């Protein structure tokens, strides 16, 4: 006798165990489910002969579950028995029969009665299947006596169905693979686009900030005008901070990874984080004091923590708790993470949480669920960029109504070869800032940036000349002209600023050169490791400082 499958549905494990003990002597296959969802998973995956359902369950009661089961074509005739310690009145029983139950067993259960009822329905199921099998055999014999052509057609139809099934399966697999590839390509495309936009935006901010600072110096003593210009400068500086977040997502900001003690780092920023989230939110931490050091840019990690805590604060409108935890992580790593030792840093809140659709887009730049003016949609994208550029990964898990956890996997410092510090040249007497007008060549393909830089240099009393490309700069020197200093943009069409600097160094080894860029992405094969670099947008004071440093010969390594 082949055992049949009997499904036991009850939210209480103890009751499921008691059913199992009572029915085990029937020697049937007992399948247990603690919720309606779990029951449906078994029903869709397995052929069930008899179903025992508890009436009172928290998420979905037995009446609703049975009604839904009866709507499925496969289980319209499956025997369903209600088991209940309550709702035993006649109206309750009538309701149970109305939704599709065939019997009603009250608690406390009489084992012999329950076994007898289940045995009857199990035997009925077996006999029904045996009858179906005999009918199938009879039909098979009839089919054997049909014409050979009809038999061949039936075989051909069967082969076609199998082929269609395989094609459907392969098509689904291909569509899933294409969807994953599309998602990866989309994020990569957004990253490139974001980096390019941030670079161009930096050039615009360069012109705006330079012009505003020069205008501020020339304004007459008028409090209102000065306030307006100051306000414009502050807005432009906020735009600078925004571009840094964009570059973080695009993985094009310049990081300075070093061994970081996360226990001490969090202690240093804990007060700042507490002020950011406010007094109604409790900060909890679980960070071992002997945690291995991380290899990461400490400033960017502090900024990432601040972004995560601000997001948690916005999810906790009525107060709550934010928990930060750190531990060495070997299990459940995100896909695509390279081998090695990692520390998992998690920031969790018990706020409103997110649904799956929101979680899937949470790290996209400019995507936000906050109201207008309450968020830029760049916080999590910045954290995503930091993790990726640091050789780690990010994972977001959230449950609607229960909270969100953002986990950062960052590499352990000891697993990486430490870069030896560059040997500093012998100390020389620092030069004082130039006391005479200097001839300075400004190379930039953006006319607005070039004009702003020239204006700042003229305001400092120097004699700047302009070149709109690297080739034009080389023509300047080929014509026999000279200068005291070259300030060149890096990202230019044709020849980059780094390539121009390499050409100039081969011909004029002592010529000071300052390389400026909206983002730092220099390869190490240019041989420009000790060239002074300036990040756009820069102020007149930063320009003066860079010039003094370049002319003094004390150029810091990149």
Structural description of this entry:
By secondary structure, this protein is α/β, with parallel strands linked by helices. Among the domains are: 5-109, Rossmann fold; 259-411, 2-Layer Sandwich (Heat Shock Protein 90); 439-556, Rossmann fold (3-Layer(aba) Sandwich), CATH 3.40.50.2300. 48% of the residues lie in helices and 17% in strands. The protein has helices spanning 13-23, 36-45, 62-70, 90-99, 111-144, 148-218, 223-250, 262-277, 298-315, 356-361, 379-389, 447-459, 470-478, 497-507, 540-552; strands at 5-9, 29-33, 50-54, 80-84, 103-106, 258-260, 281-286, 294-296, 320-328, 342-349, 393-399, 403-411, 439-443, 463-467, 485-489, 513-517, 532-535. The strands form four sheets. A five-stranded parallel β-sheet has the order 2-1-3-4-5, sandwiched between helices. The protein has a five-stranded mixed β-sheet with strand order 7-9-10-12-11, with helices on one face. Strands 14-13-15-16-17 form a five-stranded parallel β-sheet, with helices on both faces. β13, α12 and β14 form a beta-alpha-beta unit. α6 (148-218) runs antiparallel to α7 (223-250) and α7 packs across α11 (379-389). The longest helix is centred in the N-terminal third of the chain and has 71 residues, at 148-218. Residues 371-378, 415-433, 522-526 and 554-558 have low confidence and may be disordered.
